[in-house]
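Appendix B, example 12.
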Amino acid sequence: MLVLRAVAGAAGLVLVLAGVVFFFQGIGVIGGSFMSGSTKWAVIGAVLVAAGVGLLAAARFRSGR
């Protein structure tokens, strides 16, 4: 079970990091990409961050049964 929690935590962290990059590209803070300045990618990034935080919380607070 510990390995599964570690994998879920790592996946959650990757989702959060990717989501932050997508979000900042979408709002135009990070330039140089087809994603820059596109609201679509800002929304996708926000969804990825939310999913990653949820996965991190599930991995952290899941009971050890």
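The chain has one domain: 2-61. The chain has a mean pLDDT of 92.
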